[in-house]
Amino acid sequence: MIYLRTRIAIKLFTGNNGRQLFCFSYINPFRHNTTLKRLPPRIQSNNQMSVKPPNILVYSNLVSVKQNLVTTLRTIVSADKYTVYPVTEAQLKAAAWPESTALLLVHGTIDSGLAGLLLIFFLRGGKLLSVCSNLLNIALNRPTDESKAPERVTLNYGVWQNQTVLQLVEDFDTKSAKSRLNEFLKNLDKDAGEADLDVLISELTFDTPSTICATDSSSNGKALFTSLDASNFIETDSGRNVGKFATSLLSDLLHSILRIEVQTSETKENLIYKDSYLLGEADVKSKFLNAISEQMEKPSFLNLNELALHFCDTKVIPPSATILPVLINHIPEDFSTLDYYRNLKTTLIGRIGIYVPVVRSSTVIVSNASLSHGFVVIPRRQTHGNGRNNNQWLSPEGCVMFSMQLHVPLASQLGRRLPIIQHLVAIAIILAVRTIPDYEELDIRLKWPNDIYANGVAKIGGIIINSRIQSSVAVVNVGCGVNLSNSNPTTCINDLIREFNRNHGKHLPVLGYEQMLGLIFTKIEELYNEVQEGDLSILQNLYYKYWLHDNKMVAVKNEAGISYSGKIVGIDEYGYLLVRTGDGDEPVYVQPDGNSFDMMKGLIIPKYC
């Protein structure tokens, strides 16, 4: 499969009318020369809307431990509020993560430069969990004996009293440690407040601390430094299953001390796979099934990489993570086809598709088969949704999600400019809401390249696109999620409508799930047809009308790592960002450095510009 970013790279080397293009890829190396003092502050906003950082980051210099901790955390924290990412040292040093991070867990050995970055995050209100890391020793100017092995000790803490655990045993003087920690913090930031240091958990065997809590008096930043071995927090380690203890103690520390929302027996969902439904008029369904019959290995079965679709009138095989019955002539109970088609004013897009209550990932369906132009998959919930760079994609109830397949002739306007399709879809989502009479003033806008923001501060939607070339057509697969009625993990469109009503004395109705889908698909087709008919300017003009970046200043680097300040001046016909780095200078094309947290940070000027 040839993905969209690979296609862009090809454009770079072939060129187009002599213009310089950049490769919109995510594989460029991160820069390591971050200045500690320039770490951006935590999000501050004067808007009434609360901006809740949704990311939990996990770092370890041991890859297997890092992945095990990620897996454990995903079973503990609120699934609809946080995304849990593994990160590398380079990603942390690129410093694009603090504004969107609710918690950073660090394990193992780090260097002093990274330690400084993490503790500045703490000083600015961030939450840290250090698990058998040398982070505290660096701050206390105390050597770490890396040859020391963990020992079996007995805990002295709550319901875990007398529980045997593995711990690195070290002597600790709270009073002198507090003094040294504050001295280190003052060296990082002369305006740092006083940090308190308390022993939270101790062990009975050698009478040493197991977990120490630091609290910054100015920002209320929290840091837990635990010498409990990471294996205590991993359900299975070297064949040793420590069962519920693994998650219960970690869950307690996260919830009671770090104020991270965790799953409980009441909130933990057990998503059950259900039948899906083929949407469309009878003749459209028949035409679609005939068209894909050649791709079926046996009648009625379309085998995809991770999923098999069984098109049927009566369910024979129960639905599961790997088999999805698609009922051809039934109407779903929890999806109003009446509301959907009432708002769908298209010829092709959204006229045929599958509604699926629960699926691992809707992109699996469109990315592994050649279906039809405008085919959509509408999942109510996803168990393994993927975002940019294969990151976790939250899929809470109330989020409008869809995957769509577009067949774009390579010789067409969009076929020659495939990257701009992501902008087209993003604009369509904005227009779906802001072109409704009386909804024009809702503050829903675009952040380059394709994120949807509410009030300029809270991300409520995003898009992922990949493509492959099939003869003279690009098969473009679009994945999209936008918060409609789910207030977590940030906010949602219907919250924005309610806020607008309160502030302006209005009574605008909230939008319905099926209504929103119909409106979005309608706007996508309208824009698609207008651009394909030759009017590319309408897309650029709409993008400028709704984007957040007019004349904004950004920091960019060249390939040598030298930083410049530049002003955003627009996008080109391919949707790439243009930045002017000096008065009178020609704009240059910039590309992301590959960080997954904020593509407007770490912009790089390619060497060929």
End-to-end separation: 29 Å
CATH fold node name of the largest domain: Rossmann fold
Shape: globular
What would you call the structural class? alpha/beta
Radius of gyration: 26 Å
Question: Which residues sit in consecutive blocks of at least 5 with pLDDT less than 50?
Answer: 1-50, 237-243
The share of residues in helices is: 25-40%
Summary tags:
SH3 type barrels, 27 strands, disordered N terminus, 14 helices, alpha/beta, 11-stranded mixed sheet, 9-stranded mixed sheet
Structure description:
- The protein is 26% helix and 26% strand.
- With 609 residues, the chain is α/β, with parallel strands linked by helices.
- The protein has three domains: 80 residues, SH3 type barrels (Roll); 222 residues, Rossmann fold, CATH 3.40.50; 214 residues, Bira Bifunctional Protein, Domain 2 (BirA Bifunctional Protein, domain 2, 2-Layer Sandwich).
- The strands form four sheets. It has an eleven-stranded mixed beta sheet with strand order 13-14-15-12-16-17-18-22-21-20-19. A nine-stranded mixed beta sheet has the order 2-1-3-4-9-8-7-5-6. Strands 26-25-24-23-27 form a five-stranded mixed beta sheet, with no helix packed on it.
- It is globular and about 75 Å long.
- The N terminus is likely disordered.
